[in-house]
Specification:
This protein is of the alpha+beta class. Helices cover 34% and strands 20% of the residues. The chain has 3 domains: 115 residues, Orthogonal Bundle (Arc Repressor Mutant, subunit A), CATH 1.10.10.10; 110 residues, 3-Layer(aba) Sandwich (Creatine Amidinohydrolase, Chain A, domain 1), CATH 3.40.350.10; 245 residues, Creatinase/methionine aminopeptidase superfamily (Creatine Amidinohydrolase, Alpha-Beta Complex), CATH 3.90.230. The strands form 10 sheets. Strands 8-7-6-5-9-10 form a 6-stranded mixed beta sheet, with helices on both faces. A 3-stranded antiparallel beta sheet has the order 11-12-13, with no helix packed on it. Strand 26 and strand 27 form a beta hairpin.
């Protein structure tokens, strides 16, 4: 008949009075069958750990966590102490009236579970033999505790929450004034000196065995807590360990996003300092370029070809003296600089664009700057001059369109319109432009803070509005394979009425204008 028969769970009727209902959805019967099997497995053998219970019930651990949460929502008192068990106050009628549980209830659950298994009316949607892939529905973040385990010593969410950058640690925020940072013997003294956590404790064994997630699960369970929010930065192995420990851990994609976007006065000042460091490093690179001589179309210095690596070393040394670092900076000559994220390697050609993109991180505040300039040593061709002029006009148009309340796509569209009007192309739909010419093939900008690329984004299809306190880049570029590229980038802060530019360095193509 195309339907499925199922017994209504917790409808308060006796075994003889169970009614059968015909429904059109197989999913509802499958869900019922799984819930019954889980309850029957707990009743048959209380005290199972999560992995054992999943095996007994014939479901994956992920499905088990979801079904246990569902049972609790329905009012069934499924508790985890040293193992899962059904407590004596089990309400077999769900959220309805309470009544004393009898032996018949247990027998009924096991009998029905056996029946639905025999009838083939259940399956685990998370097993590999599932007919169709299913995606878990997002759930509200709520007020569940926050669990953070850093992905490295530059984990931005961990630093934002604790004020402390570290490779190995655990942070749990139970409530606004109730948080704890667990550190290793190696880092405990620094944690006490630098972190903002109310409680800082040491745990040698967890550090030695690297069982931070298991410790988190135990700490939560000791407070009777079974759910938690985690950062998108959390490694998958930690997420699995949390869930295997009986914690319904959910990734909160919005965790700290709003707070990190809105820069305080101190954060804005620190980013300005980082931007000044970037300017100094760009000038140092340009100085190295300007000191070189031209031999057979290649720049030479100190008896040999001038390379990207030599200029990188100069810039990194200067940044280090100022308390910054930028291991992935770009110093790319032509024609390879037509690849926007090409880092640069080997000798640098004269009479062609060199893109210098430096985004230093403060070793103290962990905040970043971001700056790009393009220069040419030798003769500047008319093609490069036209590309550069178009990029500068697009940069100004993008900056002029920025203000609080403006959708993130608007500055990008303004940039694209200028470039297309000047005879160039983009990869943005509706602003494609001509064929076979230099084009913009990336977004106009991004947020800057504890990460050099963070929210908000200035790109096509972003309708999220810019907010006062956002720090963003504006970085139009034009690139032509086999020829080279031109990119110019400023960084500044969104205000109620516009854009406060943190960048003061010249945008010239001529190296002498920087010195």
């Amino acid at each position: 008949m195309g339907g499925v028969w199922y017994a209504a769970l917790g409808d308060g009727r006796s075994e003889s009075g169970l009614q059968l209902h015909l429904v059109s959805s197989v999913n509802r019967a499958e869900r019922l069958a799984r819930l019954l099997r889980v309850l029957a497995a707990i009743i048959a053998e209380p005290g199972l750990n999560p992995l054992e219970l999943a095996e007994k019930a014939g479901v994956s651990d992920r499905t088990l966590r979801r079904d246990l949460a569902h049972l609790r929502d329905l009012g069934y008192e499924v508790a985890y102490t040293s193992g899962y068990e059904v407590q004596e106050k089990l309400n077999l009628e769900g959220r309805g009236r309470q009544r004393t549980r009898g032996r018949g209830d247990d027998a009924l659950l096991q009998a029905v579970a056996q029946a639905v298994e025999t009838a083939g009316l259940w399956r685990d949607p998370d097993r590999v033999d599932a007919t169709l892939p299913r995606r878990a529905k997002p759930r509200p973040s709520g007020k569940a505790p926050i669990v953070l385990i850093p992905s490295g010593d530059e984990d931005a969410d961990f630093i934002y929450a604790t004020g402390f950058g570290v490779e190995n640690a655990l942070y749990i925020r139970f409530s606004e004034k109730d948080d704890v940072l667990v550190a290793s013997p190696l880092e405990i003294d620094r944690a006490r000196a630098q972190s903002r956590a109310a409680t800082v404790v040491e745990d040698r064994d967890t550090y030695v065995h690297q069982t931070w997630a298991r410790l988190a699960a135990r700490m939560l369970r000791e407070r009777g807590i079974s759910d938690a929010r985690v950062s998108p930065n959390l490694r998958a192995v930690h997420l699995e360990d949390l869930r295997a420990g009986g914690i319904d851990a959910q990734v909160d994609r919005e965790l700290y996003v709003a707070g990190r976007r809105h820069k305080s006065a101190a954060e804005a000042a620190a980013i300005q300092d980082a931007q000044r460091a970037a300017e100094s490093a760009v000038v140092e690179v340009v100085r190295g370029l300007s000191e070189a001589e031209i031999r057979d179309g290649v720049l030479w210095s100190n008896g040999g070809p001038l390379t990207s690596e030599q200029l990188y070393a100069r810039a990194q040394l200067l940044l280090g003296k100022k308390g910054y670092t930028c291991p992935d900076m770009i110093i790319a000559g032509s024609p390879e600089c037509a690849l926007p994220h090409y880092r640069g390697t080997g000798p640098i050609k004269a009479n062609a664009p060199v893109i210098i993109d430096i985004f230093p991180t403060s070793r103290q505040t962990h905040l970043n700057g971001d700056l790009t300039r393009t220069v040419v040593v030798g003769e500047i061709s008319d093609d490069v001059k036209r590309m550069h002029a178009a990029v500068l006009q697009a940069l100004d148009a993008g900056i002029e369109s920025i203000a609080a309340g403006v959708p993130g796509q608007e500055p990008h569209h303004a940039v694209c319109q200028v470039l297309v009007d000047r005879g160039y192309a983009t990869t943005t739909k509706g602003f494609e432009g001509a064929e076979g010419v230099a084009k913009l093939n990336h977004s106009t900008g991004h947020g800057v803070g504890l990460e050099v690329h963070e929210e908000p984004a200035l790109r096509d299809a972003v309708v999220d509005e810019l907010r006062e306190g956002d720090v963003v880049t504006v970085e139009p570029g034009l690139y032509l394979l086999g020829f080279g590229g031109v990119r110019v980038e400023d960084t500044g802060m969104v205000t109620q009425h516009g854009f406060q530019n943190f960048t003061t360095l010249t945008r010239s193509l001529n190296p002498q204008d920087y010195l």
